[in-house]
Amino acid sequence: MLIKDIICELESFAPTAYAEDFDNVGLLTGSAEAKVTGILVTLDTLETVVDEAIAQNCNLIVSFHPIIFSGLKKLTGSNYVERTVLKAIKHDIAIYAIHTALDNSMKGVNDMICEQLGLINREILIPQAGSIKKLLTFVPKKDAAEVREALFSAGAGSIGNYDHCSFNTIGSGSFRGNEESNPVIGRKGEIHYEEEVQIGVTFSRHLERNVLKALFDCHPYEEIAYEITTLDNFNQKIGIGMVGELEEEVSEMAFLEQVKKTFGCGCIRHSQLRGKPIKKVAVLGGSGSFAIGNAAGAGADIFLTADLKYHDFYKAEQKLVLADIGHYESEQYTKNLLASFLKKKFANFAVVLSNTDTNPIKYF
């Protein structure tokens, strides 16, 4: 088993194409061609985590947060980032970070928070724009069914709960090949008219390479006419944050007590309570102050997130309760999600859940 095989499965689960532009996801150290001796799954990669990987004979660390976030201009061991990277390189340990690729997954970080809280009717809080593409191509009528099926098999044509979705228009196409051409239909140097079907399908951005390969492999023409455009439509299956509902509404204090116990919070900082029951809950693991307006707009009674600043709490404006449950606390179950996924995919392979507490914040 090679590291690239593990990466392939991880990116089928949480494609890096949907990571935020500011992020640094993917393989950070090591070679994708190296053989895997074992996988250590962690929330953060620190020196102590690398030590744990060495002790467990794991040469691949799958980490939620990237240890290298901004560019490194030197590696002298002068800070915890440089020391961690140097130790990983010295011991031939690869580090793969998944971060906002998993944040934006329907079954990722925020779904895990909802799972712990028992929320139902879950939806993405901020659906991602620009993640849906559209392909138009032109195919001889007799070959249209074969080309459509190839595109569907590559993942095109799926919309929500439906698949095999396409729009087809019959028309007349014309072309003339030059002396260098080798036309499948018609003759070089002569204008040819062919009854064609214009096939239109949408697909998720990360599938573009597979969809084009399917098109090129099965299309009969020597030169294939096609167009790809990026749509502004929001992708309801990709995006950050999540909103769901409790089976039964509860009081504000009862819900906060449940959250504190479930996530082991040292404390919960929250805005002024409204004296109204909690039914609809918005969540966003990690730093989520940017989504306060989205949570309010979704009609949430409370928004669970982390890293809220003093003035952020004013933004509640009695529309909802804001609750800062801690950065680590909100994302802690992510490593369990990743470990469970990898164990299912590689049942006969060593996948180890890190025991290192990487939470830098302590409570008195």
UniProtKB/TrEMBL annotation:
Family annotation (InterPro entries): DUF34/NIF3 (IPR002678), DUF34/NIF3_bac (IPR017221), DUF34/NIF3_sf (IPR036069), N-reg_PII/ATP_PRibTrfase_C (IPR015867)
Pfam families cross-referenced by the UniProt entry: DUF34_NIF3
The organism's place on the tree of life at top rank: Bacteria
Keywords annotated in UniProt: Metal-binding
Similarity remark: Belongs to the GTP cyclohydrolase I type 2/NIF3 family.
Full protein name: GTP cyclohydrolase 1 type 2 homolog
Organism for this UniProt entry: Salinimicrobium oceani
Lineage, opening ranks: Bacteria, Pseudomonadati, Bacteroidota, Flavobacteriia, Flavobacteriales
